[in-house]
Design brief:
By secondary structure, this protein is mainly α. The chain has a single domain, classed as MFS general substrate transporter like domains (Growth Hormone, Chain: A, Up-down Bundle). Helix content is 80%, strand content 0%. Helix 14 runs antiparallel to helix 20. The longest helix has 30 residues.
């Protein structure tokens, strides 16, 4: 898990560093707010197209083979982003980045089901998802410093930012083949008895799910429960990517006197608090064996922060509200991603989890694009923040409507 966590730090940083590059890139390339919203979100179209095929290939060939392919390809494409010269080139490369990266996150959610029983799964997913706030926590100040101080060879600092932060993905992609087992059976760090214990407990859980209902891949993808989760996840991603892709510009909008380095350090504060909240919520969810209310309460907190942020008039209140948004939006993921594994198994779990993540992540396109389009027309981010808050609130309501006992409901 620590290694998967490290990979996700690199992955998430390559996905969101466009938010910091925009502080100088938008002016150099004459990118409007609406265009920025589109190029931020177009990543998720590529993500959407290849997510399910990628997870099915992962199920077939194993993590040790498939994860290195993902890392090396996304690192190469992320580095190419630093060489674009027009907005249309940027659209293309961002789309290709989504295509290259597709499958890693849902792949890990599926991979976790091969290692951890249900009672430990939220904490395992939390350890992995801690990479999101950590990537922002570390990446925000580093990105700000690169923008202010790295102008090597007369090349714009935002270009260096994108290239330098892409290199670790390529390097780690070469390492992962050597260190990551595809299953407990291949793990050299486990004794034979430990392997038997893990496989026996996971096997019992799989049998319990199959006794309730056995989902084929197609049945999982057509399941009303899966599409219910997709509907909820759309709003969740709207809130999360509003934070990461627009947060630096929200802070910068309150004072043009702030250097990019100061903006980076200020936007690191919400990530730190979000990291702490994520750990506490995951522990609570596993201890209580409860998922719905943990997700809904976190979503409501984030939605409230977004609605209040639309009326904020000082950097202090903006950072405070972004912190509440971070604590809510980061904490959602661990209990949320336990839910699909409670009724899906095997290849159906690979397909169902990938489908939820791929279609749901289209909210990562809709949210940033809507904020940019509204900002272009109104000259303010307020209207877009209200839309994002309403989306996150609707997700809270949808999660509360999920059946309390997934297995019992599956009998119908």
């Amino acid at each position: 898990m620590p290694f998967l966590f490290l990979l996700f730090v690199v992955c998430y940083l390559d996905r969101i560093n466009i938010g910091f590059a925009a502080l100088t890139m938008n002016k150099e390339l004459a990118i409007t707010s609406q265009q920025y919203g589109l190029l931020s979100g177009i990543f998720f179209f590529g993500y959407f197209l290849f997510e399910v095929p990628s997870n099915l290939l992962l199920h077939k060939v194993g993590a040790r083979i498939w994860f290195p392919r993902i890392l090396i390809s996304w690192g190469a494409v992320a580095a190419l982003t630093g060489f674009v010269h027009t907005t249309h080139q940027l659209y293309l490369v961002r789309f290709l980045l989504g295509l290259a990266e597709a499958g890693y996150v849902p792949g890990v959610y599926f991979y976790v089901t091969h290692w951890f029983p249900k009672r430990e799964r939220a904490r395992a997913i939390a350890l992995f998802n801690m990479a999101s706030p950590v990537a922002s926590l570390l990446g925000a100040p580093v990105s700000g410093l690169i923008l202010d101080h790295v102008h090597w060879m007369g090349v714009s600092s935002w270009r260096w930012l994108l290239v330098l932060e892409a290199l670790p993905a390529i390097i780690l992609g070469l390492v992962i083949y050597l260190v990551l087992p595809s299953s407990p059976r291949e793990a050299k760090f486990l004794s034979p008895d430990e392997k038997k214990v893990i496989e026996a407990e996971l096997g019992r859980e799989e049998e319990q799910k199959l006794q309730v209902r056995e989902y084929s891949v197609l049945r999982a993808m057509a399941s009303p429960r899966v599409w219910h989760l997709i509907s909820a996840y759309v709003g969740i991603t709207v809130g999360g990517y509003t934070l990461t892709l627009w947060g630096p510009q929200v802070v910068k909008s309150f004072s043009n006197m702030y250097s990019n380095s100061v903006v980076g350090f200020l936007t690191a504060i919400p990530s730190l608090l979000g990291l702490i909240a994520m750990i506490l919520v995951a522990r609570s969810s596993d201890r209580m064996m409860e998922r719905r209310y943990h997700v809904a309460v976190c979503a409501m907190a984030g939605a409230t922060a977004l609605l209040l942020l639309s009326a904020a008039h000082s950097p202090f209140y903006a950072v405070a509200l972004l912190s509440i948004l971070a604590m809510g939006s980061y904490s959602i993921f661990s209990p949320f991603w336990v839910i699909p594994g409670e009724f899906l198994t095997g290849a159906s779990a690979a397909a169902g989890i990938a489908l939820i993540n791929s279609v749901g992540n289209l909210g990562g396109f809709a949210g940033p694009y809507a904020i940019g389009a509204i900002a272009t027309r109104t000259g303010s981010l307020s209207g877009g923040l209200i839309v994002a808050g309403a989306s996150l609130f609707s997700s809270a309501m949808l999660v509360l409507l999920l059946p309390k006992e997934p297995q019992a409901q599956a009998k119908g």
